[in-house]
Design goal:
alpha+beta; 2 domains; 4-stranded antiparallel sheet; 5 helices; 10 strands; 37% helix; 15% strand; binds FE2/S2 (inorganic) cluster
Length: 287
């Protein structure tokens, strides 16, 4: 039996909205479980496509592109007229019920789409205030290289730079630190007071200008005095490693936060605690 076009459009709208609901829920699930590379996009696409297709089918079902002309009937009603009216009323009740289903499904699909978008839209904003004030550094956390090797305080020659992380948090972006050993007598008082050990100093590797990695240590040995500079390659901000990584050139507006250091019972470098301030550009936090 051939299904009337109007009925087919109705069914298509119901199925489309139901699929959109599934898409929205899938997107929300993908975001909550960090599967944002493929599943999130698929979910949102299915939700949007389902709603679009459902609306078109709904419009077809309503016959919005049709013009209907109804002839006026005589005002007297025969028994047949009364029966026809009752049938029409029954049909209208069914139609209203079907419409409720459509409206409900449309509302559900729209809601699920909103839910699917909540996470990604929320991620566009700044991190909640205070969250950037914390990194993975904790009191007693050993400084380890990217290969997991802890750093002994008695080793290492002057003027060498190595990137280190807290033990157990290798690769965590906001916790990357540049570790240097410098002649202790050249460090300024505030650098020593902020937590240096035998010439070891550790600074956040995230540039305070726009967040690039500060990975260059320039040492100029020419007379009359050796000049040491930490350089960010993105826009050439220059920091003084002897003086708390204070900015001495370029656009960076403030020092690289210094990680306070100590030595544990086995002679390895550890953190006294987290950075005293926010790492990276302050604009992120103030946006
Ligand atoms: S990000 Fe470092 S100078 Fe711009």
């Amino acid at each position: 039996m051939r299904v009337p076009e109007n009925e087919r459009a109705y069914r298509a709208a119901v199925v489309s909205f139901a699929v959109a609901v599934v898409g929205g829920i899938t997107a929300a699930f993908a975001y909550a479980t960090d599967q944002t590379d493929l599943l999130l996009g698929l979910g949102l696409a299915v939700a949007l496509g389902g709603i679009g297709f459902g609306l078109v089918s709904w419009a077809k079902h309503l016959g919005l592109d049709e013009h209907a002309v109804q002839q006026r009937e005589p005002l007297t009603m025969t028994a047949d007229d009364v029966q026809a009216l009752e049938e029409e009323l029954t049909l209208t009740r069914q139609t209203v019920g079907r419409r409720k289903l459509l409206v409900g499904l449309f509302g559900g699909s729209f809601l699920s789409l909103l839910v699917g978008f909540v996470g990604p839209i929320g991620s566009l904003g700044p991190k909640p205030r205070g969250e950037r004030g914390r990194t993975s550094w904790r009191q007693g956390a050993r400084l380890v290289t990217s290969g997991g090797t802890p750093v002994e305080s008695g080793t290492g020659s002057f003027d060498q730079l190595v990137t280190v992380f807290p033990e157990g948090a290798i690769g965590v972006d906001d916790s990357q630190v540049i570790l240097l050993r410098l002649p202790p007598d050249l460090l300024t008082d505030r650098t020593v007071a902020a937590g240096s050990v035998d010439g070891w100093v550790a600074y956040s590797k995230i540039c305070t200008h726009a967040g690039c990695s500060v990975g260059l240590l320039g040492v100029d040995n020419r007379e009359p005095e050796t000049v040491r500079q930490l350089v960010c390659p993105c826009h050439q901000s220059v920091f003084d490693p002897l003086d708390g990584a204070a900015p001495v050139g370029g656009p960076a507006p403030r020092s690289l936060p210094q990680l306070p250091l100590a030595v544990d019972a086995d002679g390895f470098l550890v953190a006294q605690g987290d950075f005293p301030g926010v790492v990276g550009p302050l604009a992120w936090d103030e946006a």
